Amino acid sequence: MVFIDTHAHIYSRKFDSDRERVILQAKSAGVEKIFMPNIDLDSIPQMLELEVLYPGVCVPMMGLHPCDVKDNVEEVLAQIEIWLGKRDFAGIGETGLDLYWDKTFFEQQKHSLSVHIQWAIQKGRPLILHCRDSMDETIAEVQRQHSPGLTGIFHCFTGEVAQAKAITELGFYLGIGGVSTYKNGGLDKVLPEIGLEKVVLETDAPYLAPVPYRGKRNTPEYIPVIAKRLAEIMEKPLEEVAEVTSRNAAQVFKEYGI
Fold first, then answer.
1. Do residues 92 and 123 make contact, with C-beta atoms less than 8 angstroms apart?
2. What letters, b where the CB count within 10 A reaches 16 and e where it falls short, cover 36-71?
3. Which superfamily does 3-252 belong to?
4. What is the dihedral sign for C-alpha 24, 29, 32, 37?
5. In the chain, what are the domain boundaries?
6. Residue 183 in 3-state DSSP?
7. Pairing of β 152-154 and β 3-5
8. HSE (CB half, 13 Å, CA atoms) of 250?
9. pLDDT at site 257
10. What is the pLDDT of residues 117-170, one digit of tens each?
11. In this structure, are strands 31-36 and 3-5 parallel, antiparallel, or unpaired?
12. DSSP helix/strand/coil, 34
């Protein structure tokens, strides 16, 4: 079975002691590609180094995480845009809105998201969206600027059926990770109403590890654990979950050979 991790910060310093082992373990578990969303300017060199060390496996994307949006957002976005002009990236992000940690820079976050949406439209690349405690607000922003052909992933989806349907109607996919294994995660009630056709797998490593690893460091090697839970929720064979979610990832990242 082939799996794709559509969202993992494998360049995080939390992997400095055993990154090679983690990537090899993930490959042994059937995870053929690991898509890496960027966080800020400091994360870029390490992310691009992994692309060189693990060609065809670790795939970089480019953006500014909403939690890293501050008063200097224009300056940082200008630097991100320079990177986008230098070369191609698999996706635009991670971007979006976050009302969980700090609402101080919410207007700046909305501006940053708007800029990222335009980049995704201009470059024909998928948009990777963070929407913690801001699902409706993020959906509204994408609806406001939506353009034919725009697609992407609402990463770490934990919303309701109506929100899931609004997202899929926009042509976007739901990124499903470790929360699907949590007792009170709620996805067991939502996902059967949506089906597999708009779902992709992710870890968000090193965050949000699935049960039975909850509370520990998450890694791409746990993608099959998430897939197994998804198979239980959907009452589908694990092989079908692997096949459909990998096909969906290939549809999102269509020029990256998956």
1. yes
2. bbbbbeebbebbbebbeebeebbbbbbbbbbbbbee
3. Metal-dependent hydrolases (3.20.20.140)
4. negative
5. 3-252
6. coil
7. unpaired
8. 11
9. 47
10. 999 999 999 999 999 999 999 999 999 999 999 999 999 999 999 999 999 999
11. parallel
12. strand
CA-based nearest residue to 8, from 41, 44, 35: 35
In the chain, % helix, strand, coil (3-state, to 5) comes to 50, 15, 35
Give the position of tokens 């002009």. Answer: 85
What span, in angstroms and rounded, lies between the C-alpha atoms of 154 and 167? 8
- Residue 5 makes CB contacts below 8 A (sequence gap 6+) with 26, 31, 33, 34, 35, 201, 202, 203, 205, 220, 223
Q: How far is CA 81 from the centre of its chain?
A: 20
Helix (H) or strand (E) holding 74: helix 73-86
Amino acid at 153: I
Confidence (pTM): 0.97
- Please provide the size of the chain in residues: 258
DSSP string across 139-175? HHHHHHH--TT--EEETT----HHHHHHHHHTTEEEE
Identify the residue whose tokens are 């090679």. Answer: 20
Closest CA to 47 of 97, 71, 83, 74: 83
Position 255 confidence tier, pLDDT thresholds 50, 70, 90: low
Rounded to whole angstroms, the maximal C-alpha distance in the chain is: 48
State how far the Cα of 50 lies from the Cα of 252, in Å rounded to an integer.
Answer: 21
Whether 39 and 65 have beta carbons less than 8 Å apart is answered as: yes
